[in-house]
Amino acid sequence: MKNDDVFAYVLDQELVRSALPDWPSGMILILCLKADGSCQTVVGHADETGRTLRKAAAALGLPERSFAVAPEVPGWPTRRVRFSEEQDMLRLVSEAKHLVELATDYAINYRFARDEGLSPEVVTGGAKPPQPRAPEPPAKPASVVRQMRQRLHLDLPPQPQAQPQFPAQPAPPPERPAMPAGFAPSAAAARADCQFGAGHIGGHGGHIRVVLAPEKATIQTRPVRVTEIGFSADFWRFYLPRAALAEWWPGRPAVIDIPAEAFPDALRNVFTGRRFHLDATVTPEGVFLAPGAPVETQAPVEAIEEDEPETPEIQPAPEPKRRRRTPLRAAMTAFLVAGTAAGAGVLTLGDPAPMLTAMLKSGLTP
What we know:
This protein is 26% helix and 21% strand. The chain is an alpha+beta fold. Mean pLDDT is 74; it is low at 127-135, 301-315 and 331-350.
């Protein structure tokens, strides 16, 4: 009776050497596969294939000729093996390196028995079947062995329906609008507030000085020293921590000093002795500075002085009001002129009182 749960494949010397190059000459290997997942091997000499199959049956605990073999062996059931199935079995054999040592020892004993005229079966221990597990190759993953048995069309035992195990998936990131890196909608927390300012930037001693609202800056505007600075890819945009303008609001003057050594040499040389217009954006993430065109009138960056008081405009003095000339005033003028002329010529006219009295009586009143 044929047992469909077992199959034996006989591999000759050349076929085994394609998987195990050190396989000894004249030796064969029988690969026994069972539907319960076990796999056993039996080694033997090519001149005793029938006896090696009987040893395989004894190792499997089955009657002789009760299972199929390939390729065809007289007196044994045969089944066809596809090329892909053969490659799977050779792959399995290639991992059993210890089979080379077993086959080599067997070949030495077989040759000794033949040379000495002894029975190879007795010398090689053929009277006792080999231990079932001794020649087994290393266990292959169950999935590979199962796949090979499926290709060999062997009956398979029922497999427990284990719950599939999947690696824990990380939480999906929050959905973000399809925007380039560095951009976000105004509703984002980092975009909740923003302020803008303008000023200039330039070299000042051992620092690069930033002045916002320079028209309002005075000597009392204390500089804030900042050592942390970041540069954009083109080195023409700067980042400062938000604390650099902690107490600042638009329109208020501010002065920031950054150590010159914090700038690349080429950029430091650009700012030395020059000033540039500057736009500042202040957000919860930090202070972002964008220099612009050079300042046309170059004044020292450190010249932060009090506003000079306006010089009041000098108004011309008003012309004196002309008084109306009356007959009395005319007479008095003539009298004074006459007196002046007389004084100049040392001429004395005497007491002028009688003349004044006469003029008043005549009606010459103002």
